[in-house]
Write a structure and sequence with these properties.
The complex is a heterodimer of chains A (480) and B (485). Chain A is of the alpha+beta class and 480 residues long. Helices cover 40% and strands 20% of the residues of chain A. In chain A, helix 2 runs antiparallel to helix 3. With 485 residues, chain B is of the alpha/beta class. Chain B has a domain of 266 residues: Amidase signature (AS) enzymes, CATH 3.90.1300. Chain B is built from 15 helices and eleven strands. Chain B has an eleven-stranded mixed β-sheet. The model of chain B has no long low-confidence stretch (mean pLDDT 96). Classes of the chains: A alpha+beta (480), B alpha/beta (485). At the A-B interface, loops of A face helix 9 of B.
Chain lengths: 480, 485
């Protein structure tokens, strides 16, 4: 990146909420239904229809605001954003302008380049989505209003990010938080979590911002990074060539990796915002805020801290396990039943995640529940089975669809570890006899051969011999 | 038609007693409409078949001893109310073909109570007007003098009563649209407190000012109808969850000892002499009835009309954006793309006054002008409301003229919007304050035109206004008579 210029990025994120119904009417927000089947006079914008605010949307907004360190506005206002477009049935979008529900938040991010850094968030406001235009062949378009009036949060950051890397770190954290809260399904391809990036550059040391371009159509983290990096290069080229950056909206084309001006479509709009007279001011009491705060789940940052500081996990492990809430929930349940965090973490990141990946199953649907897995770990702990046999037990429980416990599997398959000294010694003697040469070498100091002998015993016992005991007996034989 | 001299409670007794059927009553209304509507043009749509079917159902209910005060009573609605499967034009070309798939809350309430909807009444387009000249369905004529306007925007609602076509109508009042036509047609009309009646399904003009209200030929009918439509509606976030009193229970309690204020700003030079005479006489009657009369001041009255034309037009410019030809209504598309379709549809679909108000409102909300116009107007509105609340600390009611003059001639002010706007000077402040008010007949002009007086009440004091109105009606001979058609 050209070192003459500093990059300035601000992000606007639209988060589609997972409420059952739309923001201003009782229609279901099921997707993939017959066009215009999920509609009523309100979301169709019929003459005389009036909006009624969905309380769950407010609750989700407060949750998101608290999780991102905002103050909640005690009396917030809905406003009309007026513009004409066929997917906007009322000719205005109900949004918030002055006095949004959440103000003055922040998130701490960390990148390799710039370390820890606090990104300011200007505001979060609630609004309704528009419908969809379906361009049919020829000259006509069809309008599907199933999506009209579905609830969105718009989260507007300060222009605090200085690289694509920082922007991605901020977005990933925001994405993690809204999915943790369960207010959004986080699906970027389907547009449940979408981002517009305002990008500008300025010579180092200049306080005034450069002219920004607004980048749209960024539906994956990779595209966002590509688009920002391309746009920065483009703006540098424009300025270096003696030109001026124009304030405009630019569409990212993922096929070519470039951004293209949308000029013509996006003229200077005057949205004529004014308070919506159909909705009364939204009053959020302190009690309400405190109730929502009390119900907030433990968020990723706090989880990482707890896992590493209290449970003694490495920061890496803590990060992996807390990355997605269902994994963390599984781990938390497991560790309460079997309080050795390190072992729990290894199993969750190892066997459990391998099996889930192979079978393409989400952890929430894992047939080996935390209870069942804790049973397996308990049998390792009390020497009933070895760690290796435990994997077999895990797989057996998995294929039973979670209908069998570790104890049942061990019993049925006869997997109980052999801890009978006499039995192990008998096997060991046979193996030493059959491999006299190697045994002498081992005695002579070739320590590597230890593994060979232990392995042979395990093999001969079909893995059931207690490995610690095998080791102990070998030491005894060597000392004889 | 002698049925027209009965109140609906009296009609109800006859219906319940088997002396009269709803079908016969409805038939009588339909016949009256058939012979008078050519002259008055009060109805845009008459739904005879549906009405007779509803009447038959009501008769069955009544025969079984069921039903309430409205069961079997014919009623007509301003064409601003959404009526399921029944044309709802709002007086506009742009909705000339619009058949709603749903009922407004008040319509659903009326149907549930067995009222018989006989048709939809003419009005100024999108309720914008004071004379009912701005209708795609043509002007309504005042039954008392067919050369005169009936008032607006609920002109059809008032004229239908004066013409004896029905006994009850519903209107809406944004800046006087119930009270002023009631006054000009010699009938009774009440604008409830903002939030008293649901606006759900009422085509919006200016959302923060619009309020649904009853019109009738007598105060008792007006009270009955208000009781039937008032109340909180979860579908209207601005409706207020406060109990609806029994308006009939206190109707005849009299006004002895009540304090009535006369706002001095409403008794100005320029008030028509006949109007002044009628109002002065009415004040004397109230004194005789035992009310105490005092002068009060509403100091910001002068700013009301300007304030109203900023707020109402701003809201209208946004409310009317949905008429774009995309989903319903009339579309004009001469193949010049999307913007072309919008422009052609709206140019052809809206009348001049509607276009004028959309432009005014768009301007008032525009970036750079918002603070100077819309925001300033909101501040003035607060002061105007405060004026009323302060006055109501001293008095129970206010009494004023409704309009500065009796009904003017059709065409007289059509080319002078400002003069037209000023004719609402006494009705507009009440909407800005969000309070309740009522117009009742109080005399006739030298030219034989009705004159009305206006009573204002405290928030949700509809029962008190009705009481004062009934006391006046009971003590005088004004109103209740049909225009000589």
């Amino acid at each position: 990146m050209d070192s003459k210029y500093e990059v300035v990025i601000g992000l606007e994120v639209h988060v589609q909420l997972t409420t059952n119904t739309k923001i201003f009417c009782g229609c279901s927000k099921d997707f993939g239904q017959e066009p215009n089947s999920q509609t009523c006079p309100v979301c169709l914008g019929l003459p005389g229809a009036l909006p009624v605010l969905n309380k769950q949307v407010v609750e989700y907004a407060i949750k998101t605001g608290l999780a991102t360190n905002h103050s909640i506005t005690p009396r917030s206002i809905f406003a009309r954003k007026n513009y004409f477009y066929p997917d906007l049935p009322k000719g205005y979008q109900i949004s918030q302008f002055e006095l949004p529900i959440c103000q003055h938040g922040w998130l701490d991010i960390e990148t390799e380049e710039s370390g820890k850094k606090r990104i300011g968030i200007t505001r979060i406001h609630m609004e309704e989505d528009a419908g969809k235009l379906i361009h049919t062949d020829g000259n006509s378009s069809a309008v599907d209003l199933n999506r009209a009036c579905t609830p969105l949060l718009e989260i507007v950051s300060e222009p605090d990010m200085r690289s694509a890397e920082e922007a991605i770190a901020y977005l990933k954290q925001l994405h993690q938080i809204v999915t943790y809260l369960g207010v959004c399904d986080g699906n970027m391809e389907e547009g449940s979590f979408r981002c517009d990036a305002n990008v500008s550059i300025r010579p180092w040391g200049q306080e005034e911002f450069g002219t920004r371009a607004e980048l749209k159509n960024l539906n994956s983290f990779r595209f966002i990074k590509q688009a920002i990096e391309y746009e920065v290069e483009r703006q540098i080229d424009v300025i270096e060539d003696g030109g001026k950056v124009v304030q405009e909206t630019r569409l990212f084309d993922p096929d070519s990796g470039v951004t293209r001006s949308m000029r013509g479509k996006e003229e200077a709009h005057d949205y004529r915002y004014f308070p919506d007279p159909d909705l009364v001011p939204l009053v959020v009491s302190e009690d309400w805020v405190e109730r929502v705060r009390a119900e907030l789940p433990e968020l990723p940052a706090a989880k990482i801290r707890r896992y590493s500081e209290q449970l003694g996990l490495s920061e890496y492990d803590a990060g992996v396990i807390s990355a997605e809430r269902p994994t963390a929930d599984y781990f938390d349940a497991l560790v309460t039943l079997y309080p050795n965090a390190k072992i729990c973490a290894n199993w969750v990141m190892g066997e459990v995640s391998r099996a889930l990946n192979e079978n393409a199953i989400a952890i929430a649907d894992c047939p080996v529940t935390p209870e069942l897995l804790a049973g397996v770990l308990g049998r390792i702990e009390d020497n009933t089975i070895s760690g290796k046999i435990a994997k077999t037990v895990f797989e057996e429980i998995w294929s039973s669809g979670g209908s069998k416990t570790a104890d049942q599997v061990i019993e049925e398959k006869g997997l109980k570890q052999v801890s009978d000294t006499g039995a192990i010694e008998a096997i060991l003697n046979e193996i030493i006899a059959a491999n006299q040469g190697q045994f002498e070498e081992l005695k002579g100091g070739k320590d590597k051969l230890m593994g060979f002998f232990v392995g042979q015993v395990m093999k001969a016992s079909k893995g059931k011999a207690n490995p610690a005991m095998v080791n102990e007996l070998m030491q005894k034989k060597l000392a004889e | 038609m002698e049925l027209n001299s009965l109140t609906i409670l009296q009609l109800g007794e006859k219906l319940r007693g088997g002396e009269l059927t709803s079908v016969a009553l409805t038939q009588a209304c339909l016949e009256r409409i058939a012979v008078t509507n050519d002259k008055v043009n009060s109805f845009i749509t008459v739904c005879a078949d549906e009405a007779l079917a509803a009447a038959a159902e009501a008769d069955a209910l009544l025969a079984a001893g069921d039903g309430g005060p409205l069961t079997g009573i014919p009623i007509a609605l301003k064409d601003i109310f959404n009526t399921r499967d029944l044309l709802t034009t709002c007086g506009s070309k742009i909705l000339a073909n619009y058949i709603p798939p749903y009922d407004a809350t008040v319509v659903a309430k009326l149907r549930a109570q067995g009222a018989v909807i006989v048709g939809k009444l003419n009005m100024d387009e999108f309720a914008m007007g004071s004379s009912n000249e701005n209708s795609a369905a043509g002007p309504v004529r005042n039954p008392w003098n067919l050369e005169r306007i009936p008032g607006g925007s609920s002109g059809g609602s008032a004229a239908a009563l004066a013409a004896g076509q029905v006994s009850l109508t519903l209107g809406t009042d944004t800046g006087g649209s119930i009270r002023q036509p009631a006054s000009h047609c010699g009938v009774v009309g009440l604008k409830p407190t903002y939030g008293r009646v649901s606006r759900y399904g009422v085509v919006a003009y200016a959302s923060s000012l619009d309020q649904v209200g009853p019109l009738a030929r007598n105060v008792e009918d007006c009270a009955t109808l208000l009781g039937a439509v008032a109340g909180y509606d979860p579908l209207d976030s601005t409706s207020v969850d406060t109990p609806v009193p029994d308006y009939l229970a206190t109707l005849k309690d009299g006004i002895k000892g009540k304090k009535i204020g006369l706002p001095k700003e409403y008794f100005i030079a320029g008030l028509d002499a006949d109007v002044k005479k009628a109002i002065d006489a009415a004040i004397e009657i109230y004194k005789q009835l035992g009310a105490e009369i005092v002068e009060v001041s509403l100091p910001h009255t002068d700013y009301a009309v300007a304030c109203y034309y900023l707020i109402a037009t701003a809201e209208a410019s946004s409310n009317l954006a949905r008429y774009d030809g995309v989903r319903y209504g009339v579309r004009k598309d001469e193949g010049e793309g999307l913007i072309g379709m919008y422009q052609q549809t709206r140019a052809a679909g809206f009348g001049d006054e509607v276009k004028r108000r959309i432009m005014l409102g768009t301007y008032a909300l525009s970036s750079g002008y918002y603070d100077a116009y819309y925001l300033k107007a909101q501040k003035v509105r607060t002061l105007i409301r405060q004026d009323f609340l302060t006055a109501f600390e001293q008095v129970d009611l206010l009494l004023t003229p409704v309009a500065p003059t009796p009904a003017f001639k059709i065409g007289e002010k059509a080319d002078d919007p400002l003069q037209m706007y000023l004719s609402d000077i006494f009705t507009i402040p009440l909407n800005l304050a969000g309070l309740c008010g009522m117009s009742i007949p109080c005399g006739m002009s030298g030219e034989g035109l009705p004159i009305g007086l206006q009573l204002f009440g405290k928030p949700f004091a509809e029962a008190e206004i009705l009481q004062a109105a009934w006391a006046f009606e009971n003590a005088t001979d004004f109103g209740g008579t049909l225009a000589p058609l």
